[in-house]
Every structure is written in C-alpha cells, then in structure tokens.
Amino acid sequence: MALLTCRDLSLGYDGKEIAGNLNFEVNAGDYLCIVGENGSGKSTLMKTILGLNSPLSGSITTGDGLKQTEIGYLPQQTDVQRDFPASVWEIVLSGCQNSQGLRPFYNKNEKAAAKANMEKMELTALSGRCYRELSGGQQQRVLLARALCATKKLLLLDEPVSGLDPKVTAEMYDIIKSLNENDGITVIMISHDIGAALQYANKVLHIGKEIFFGSVDEYTHTRDTFAHTEGGGVK
Amino acid sequence: MTFLAEKLDYLQFPFVRYALIVGVLIALCSSLLGVTLVLKRFSFIGDGLSHVAFGAMAIAAILKFTNDMPVVLLITVISAILLLRTGQNAKIKGDAALAMISVGSLAIGYLLMNIFAKSANLSGDVCTTLFGSTSILTLSKAEVLVCAILSIAVVIVFILFYNKIFAVTFDENFARATGIKAGAYNLIIAVIIAVIIVLAMNLVGSLLISALVIFPALSAMRVFKTFRSVTICSAVFSVICALLGILISVITGTPVGSTIVAADIVAFALFTLAGKIMRGKRT
After folding, report:
1. Which of B16, B56, B39 minimizes the C-alpha distance to B137?
2. Which residue range forms the structural domain that includes residue A131?
3. Nearest-by-CA chain B residue for A94
4. Which of A128, A226, B2, B219 could bond to B271 as cystine, CB 3.0-4.6 Å?
C-alpha cells in the first residue's frame, strides 16, 4: 500500500481553487519532487498534506501505518525565527512533540532521539549555540534534525535550499539524498530548481495549468510540450 | 546607614509587605509570557487588553457591582481569545485588530464614565485607572490571597506547558503538523495574559502594563541566547525591578506604577549596554 495517496484533490482557500484534479501516490522509499510556477499551489499542497489546510474536495489518505502527525516537515523560514532566542538543542528537541501528547516534559527516549539526529546532521558541536547566529546552511540542518525527530518515514521539504549558496546547496542535496537512500526515509520536496529535481528525485509532480505526475524519465520526455504550452515556464 | 535602617522600618507595616508580595507575583507572571508575546509580535496586547479592562471596569462601576473583578476578568479573557485566535490568517491583522479594540474600549469606557458617573472627581478616577493607583498600598488580606492564588496558577500552567508554548511560538505550522493543538495553546496563552493584565491593573494601571510585559523580555533577549535562559532572566529581571520600584516609591513617595517602569527602563539600558559589550568581545 502507498504511504500517501491523493485522489481528485482540489486545493485552495475560502472556496477559491488554486490547483485541482491532483492524483498521485507516494510509495515508501520514493523521492518525489513537486515543481511548478510561483502561485501554482505547491506550498498549499504541502500544507494540505500536513493537515494545516483542509482540501476543497478529494482525499488524502496515509497508509503503511503512517499517521498524519508523523510527517517530518521542513518549512520555509519565517520572520519570527530569524531573531528567535533559542539554542540548537531546544529547537531540535521540539521536534519530539508528537510522541509527547499531554506529558509536559521530554523523556529519555526523546532526548536520545534528538541527540542522535543532531549527530547525524553534524550539529553536536553547535548544541548550545543560538539559532539566530548560525549560517543559513546550519539553520537548515537544525530544522532538518528537528523534522527527523518527528518522523522515521516521511519528510516534507519546502524549498530546502532557498537562500543558500551553491556549495551549501549541494551539501544540502547530498544530505537529503543520503537520508532517502541510507535511512530509507521517503522524501517529498518542493523545488524551483528543476535541474536538481531531475538529478536526485525518482518521481516528479508538476502542478500548474498542466498537471503531470510520473517518473523522472517520463517527465524529461514531456518537458518540451510543457515548455511550449506554458510559454517556456519550465526551464 | 541609620537612614536606610529607618526606611526599612516601613517593612513592619503590613500594607508595605502586602504591596511587595503582590508586586513581585505580578511582575513574575507578566514577565513569563513576555518573551512569547514579543516574538509573536504581540507586544501591544498588554496595552490593548488593559484598555478593554478599563472599559469593563467602567461598565461594572455603572452597574454598581460591589466586586468588579469577575466581570472585568471575564470581558478581558473573551477579548484576549478573540484577538489571539485570529492569529496568522486573520482578515484584519493582529496589530490593527489590537489597535481597534484598544482605542475603542478606551473611548467607550471614558464615555460611559462621563455619562453615568456620580463621582465628583471624574478625572481623578480616570487618572487612577490609567496610571495605577495607590490601591496597591491599601490591599486587604483577601485581595492579596486572590492575587497569590491566581499568580501561582499562572506560574504552574506556564511550567507545565513550557515546551508546548516554545514549540507554538517558534514555529506554529510545524507544531500543528506534528499534532500539537496550536489553537488550544494560543487559547491558554490568551487566558493567562488576560488574567495577568487584570491583576496588574492595580499595580501599574492600564497605560503602563505593556512595560511589565515587554521590558523584561527585551532586556533578557539582549544578553541571553537560549529560550530557557531568556525566560528565567526576564523573570528575575522583572521581580528585581518591581521590588526596587515599590521600595523607592514607598520611601520617596513617587507613584508606584511609574517608578517600577522607570526602574525597568534603567535596567533595560544596562542590559543593552552589557549585550553590546559582550558582542564586541566576541568579534
């Protein structure tokens, strides 16, 4: 059974549709890249998958024993976070909330998980540092470690490399690739960077006027037609 | 020394001790949520809600309630919930909604007091509510008790939900995605802040409440880098400033509320300086 299945999904706010007729599924181990122009509904789709927005119509079902609250989410940074006084440790640990329920404090397992994920993201040395003093790449790794605390199965990444320089961007893609291949974590990533999408992902979902879902190979074949119909929107 | 000892004699009076206890408790509570409110861009909620409380007091006075506390508390809590509930996705954004409610209830409160007031000293009454009264020095034992119970409740709730409040403040969307009922915690934050404001009206009056909420948080954020140390530091900062303010005002006869806020301002300047020096050393 698929990890995530979307059927006839229609997205939007206040009854106004942004994107409609979405049908796709994500299997365990997939690396799905969601591409499309600004305003085509990529972030809305992600929020709908996370349960932050409700779909206008259609359904999203999770399978393979995945609960909707067990999805690791790497959001785009907000203004609030840029001057937030919090240590790396505090932020990573806050990813363990979904196992916590109403229990007020973190237990040993959660602290151990947070430590392990910091180790994996090479953040252990930065543990006590203040988040707002870190570089962009380090901040993304902190948020990724937090997302890993929330999931063992599925990561949702919203423009994970926006604002990073080319070197750090490549490192970030390598980290994500390694999580997908070595840790068996399924990845859904929103990206502007179609080149990277084709290089790393195995499936592509293109939303916009034309909707495409399929493997990277199929996408490469149909790209020219897209470029034609959308006035060269896909580069 | 004899001068100081003489002044410390004031502590023998129960009203001074009551004022100190209540002052410290209110300062402690108001500083706890300060960090969250400042970071959520709700610095002015103290101001807005205290004006609501002012309006509510005017209504309670007109209806001749002998004990206006429950009415004021109820109205303030409801307004707080309405304000914070709108949050990120509101049609009227947080600051605008706050400004609207704030000036609106100030105007209505003053209007009602003017139309219905029996008191001869109207401007005096208004001034007392806005800038804090000497009533902090005339507290009864029962009032101190109520204040203590509410304050302790606020502290306990804050400690129990500390990790959740952190998660919701740092990243509301992530928190909601991982199953935290962010709405419920925003509600708790709203109720706590409303309770604190109604408590603090006695101490500094409705115009100066924001100072109790913002100054400790902003000062602590100049120097400390983690959420926990910022929270602890702002609590200590707030308590010390309140103590100093009350003692100075008792000794020199200045108004309690403004003296506390003045102490906050001085301490804020010191913290800013300290933060600058620390940063300078590192680079």
Report:
1. B16
2. 77-152
3. B167
4. B219
| A138 and A26 in a common domain | no
A108 with A223, same domain: the answer is: no
Q: How many CA atoms lie within 13 A of A226 on its CB side?
A: 21
Residues forming beta bridges with residue A9, ordered by sequence position: A22
- The β-bridge partners of A35 are A206
Using a CB-CB cut-off of 8 Å, the residues of chain B touching A133 are 225
Q: How far apart are CA B259 and CA B134, in angstroms?
A: 12
Residues A174 and A189 in one domain: yes
Average pLDDT, chain A: 83
Q: Identify which of B70, B26, B14, B73 has the alpha carbon closest to the alpha carbon of residue B203.
A: B26
Query: If phi over 0 gives left and psi between -120 and 50 gives alpha, with beta otherwise, what is residue A35?
Result: beta
Q: Among all residues of chain B, which has the CA nearest to that of A13?
A: B89
CA distance B250 to B40: 36
Say whether both A81 and A133 belong to one domain.
yes
- The residue of B178, B180, B234 whose CB has the most chain A CBs within 10 angstroms, and thus the best one to mutate to test that interface, is B178
Min mean pLDDT across A99-103, B32-36, B243-247 is at A99-103
Count of structural domains within chain A: 2
- Are A46 and A1 found together in one domain? yes
Chain B residue with minimum CA distance to A130? B225
- For residue A143, the distance in angstroms to the closest alpha carbon of chain B comes to 10
A5, A40: one domain: yes
Indicate if A38 and A97 belong to the same structural domain.
Answer: no
Nearest Cβ partner of B170 from A50, A94, A106? A94
**pLDDT interval class at A233 (50, 70, 90):** very low
Out of A105, A121, A152, a domain closes at: A152
pLDDT at B86: 60
CB distance B27 to B239 below 8 Å? yes
Closest residue in chain A to residue B181, using alpha carbons only: A101
Instruction: Give the closest residue to B33 by CA, choosing from B210, B198, B207, B208.
Output: B210
The whole-angstrom separation of Cα A194 and Cα A205 is 11
Contact residues, chain B, for A68 at CB < 8 Å = 179
Q: Could you give the domains of chain B?
A: 2-273 (1.10.3470.10)
pLDDT (tens digit, 9 = 90+) per residue, B170-210? 888 888 888 888 888 888 888 888 888 888 876 677 777 88
Residue A61 has pLDDT above 70, yes or no: yes
Could you tell me the pLDDT band of residue B219, with boundaries at 50, 70 and 90? very high
B219 touches chain A (CB under 8 A): no
